[in-house]
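Hello again, I could really use a second opinion on something today. I've dropped the whole record in just underneath, so have a look.
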Amino acid sequence: MHNFQKLEVWKASMELTTEIYNYTKNFPDNEVYGITSQMRRCSISIPSNIAEGSGRKTNKEFVHFLSIANGSSYELQTQIIVSNNIGYINEEVKDSLTTKLISVQKMIYTLIQKFS
């Protein structure tokens, strides 16, 4: 078992999730069940799966949940691009969120390599 609260990847993904929640507060009300909900769900999936995997008994199980978190990160990356394309976030916000997300993706990849 790993203490997820000490993992830098968990901390970074929690910060990113908080930012996603803050930015999506400004999305149109008619998107509450659309892209707002989708971005929030996949962003929270990243640290949640890291945490869940850290509580599993084997490294193989941990890697499985890291892989799910990684998949959610790519889903979020797509939604960030769409949000920019439709004018919900500007280019600067898109670039900032994407940079942070890529950093999280690299940390997840490193952990997957370490425990595989």
